[in-house]
Amino acid sequence: MAIPIINDWEKYFEHPHEGLGSSYERIILNGMLLKYVQEYEISSILETPSFGFTGLSGVNTMALALKGCEISMEDHNLKRIDMITNLWQSLNLPLKTKYNQDYTLLDYPDNSFDMGFNFSALWFTKDIASFLNELGRVCSKLIIICVPNRQGIGYRMQIKDYNPELYPDLHPKHIDPSSIAYLMGKNRWKLIDKQYIDCPPWPDIGMNKELFFTRITGLKTPPTEMPNEKAVSILPYNQGTDPSFASNMLRYSLLERYAPNCFKQYWAHHQYLAFSK
Q1: In 92-110, which positions are buried (b, 16+ CB within 10 angstroms) versus exposed (e)?
Q2: Burial (Cβ within 10 Å: 0-12, 13-18, ≥19) of residue 37
Q3: What is the DSSP secondary structure assignment for residue 138, as one 8-state letter?
Q4: Pairing relation of β-strands 113-119 and 70-75?
Q5: Which of 93, 112, 232, 246 is the most buried (most CB within 10 A)?
Q6: Calpha distance 207→222 (Å, rounded)
Q7: The whole model's pTM is what?
Q8: Taking Cα atoms as reference points, which of 221, 179, 248, 181 lies closest to residue 27?
Q9: Where are the alpha helices (DSSP H) in the chain?
Q10: Of 6, 40, 5, the residue nearest 21 (C-alpha)
Q11: Residues 183, 187, 189, 194: what is their CA dihedral angle, to the nearest 10 degrees?
Q12: Which domains are delineated in the chain?
């Protein structure tokens, strides 16, 4: 959805039901990140900001940790940092966390990390130019930035809900790909790839995708938000107890793999930019 879930993000820690949409997104994101990690021989990663979209916070880089990468993560909410830390500990995964009020400064020496990453999170930075300059300073090999697809039908429909008075800490102008590429270029980082990502067969709507399918098919099923409902989440997959999770999600990847960019430009939910030093 276009506006991040700011006020009730805790519910995903209480009942980690991310639904089909976010679950598919996780697997596609994993595949993209793992490809770059292998290609650039990445061993240390800074994810900042870590909070940006719907679903469980702090799980985007779990797959990289499982491959042996050292993960550091920043957030502007102390409670969320504690909950993310506890979540990682429950999976016996090491994680370094740090509180960052507005991401204007990154408190690390130069070239502390091989790679920097964030997913739909730049709108929480106070000063986008300062943040990108700092991110370029502390990273040595690669930076991957994912933003919502601002040309997408879903984004255009939902961004109308944005109101600066309701979301004073949200800055939609910071997720403009052209501005990001320009600022990164000034910092002597080269744009090496720019692709649409997260292109499932359902539109980018602020609705549980299981409920969406039942509505368009006319089928009647119990409400999808019942507390005793079996959670659809990537966590069991990361724990090794649901090995078929990725293949089940990839059944929906036909458009992801074969649709032309002229279609993805209006249908894909996100876009990523990859930069090398």
Answers
A1: eeebebeebeebeebebee
A2: buried
A3: H
A4: unpaired
A5: 232
A6: 15
A7: 0.91
A8: 248
A9: 11-14, 19-39, 62-66, 78-90, 128-138, 153-158, 177-186, 209-217, 235-239, 245-250, 254-258, 261-267
A10: 5
A11: -10
A12: 11-276 (3.40.50.150)
Q: Evaluate if residue 2 carries a pLDDT over 60.
A: no
Query: What are the tens digits of pLDDT across the range 169-207?
Result: 889 999 999 999 999 999 999 999 999 999 999 998 755
Pairing of strands 139-148, 113-119: parallel
Task: Give the whole-angstrom CA distance, residue 149 versus residue 271.
Answer: 6
SS3 191: strand
**Per-residue tokens: 230:** 């079996």
User: Beta-carbon neighbour count of residue 33 at 10 Å?
Assistant: 24
For the chain, the average pLDDT equals: 90
Give the tokens for residue 96: 């370094």
**Residue 13 near residue 87 (C-beta atoms within 8 A):** yes
Helix axes 177-186, 128-138, angle to 10 degrees: 50
Contact 60, 116 (CB under 8 A): no
Instruction: Retrieve residue 208's tokens.
Output: 């549980």
Residues ≥6 apart with Cβ < 8 Å to 34: 63, 64, 67
pLDDT, one tens digit per residue, over 226-255 is 344 577 999 999 999 999 999 999 999 999
Pair of tokens at residue 44: 């240390």
- At 1 the pLDDT is 47
**Both structure tokens of 168:** 């004073």
Distance in angstroms (rounded) separating the CA atoms of residues 111 and 94: 21
| Contact criterion met (CB below 8 Å) for 135 and 106 | yes
What is the end-to-end Cα distance of the chain in Å, rounded?
32
> Rounded distance, CA 182 to CA 188, Å?
10
